[in-house]
Specification:
117 residues; mainly alpha; two-stranded antiparallel sheet; two-stranded antiparallel ribbon; 7 helices
């Protein structure tokens, strides 16, 4: 039974773990969980600091979405020009200041790949 409990703990991430991995604030992660962008194992109503995300769900999230900040850093561009290019080309952020009050823009990777390549 103890091995199962350890295994379960290894298979889940806290909001703070995800924030550290993505270099974002915990409130951004909580917002994504609250808005069902990132699946949480124990989301009930308002997201608490104790919300847990399965590693699988975090990998799915990371494979599906990307922060405009990270796109800019990878391509040596500034974030404003990346956002402008994406918006002008028809991409719609799933989270960000003008979408849900989030701190930074989050896009689907498929939009980024289609527009920026």
């Amino acid at each position: 039974m103890k091995k199962l409990a350890v295994k379960l703990r290894q298979d889940v991430l806290a909001v703070s773990d995800i924030a550290a991995k993505l270099n974002v604030q915990t409130k951004s992660v909580r917002l994504w969980v609250q808005n069902d962008i990132l699946k949480s194992r124990d989301k009930v109503g308002r997201v608490t600091r104790r919300a847990k995300v399965l590693n699988k769900d975090f990998r799915d999230f990371s494979g599906r979405y990307m922060l405009a900040r990270d796109v800019a850093a990878q391509r040596g561009l500034d974030v404003k020009s990346v956002n402008s290019t994406l918006l002008y080309s028809g991409a719609r952020p799933v989270s960000g200041p003008s979408v849900d009050g989030g701190e930074m823009y989050l896009y689907e990777r498929s939009d980024i790949d289609r527009i920026i390549g």
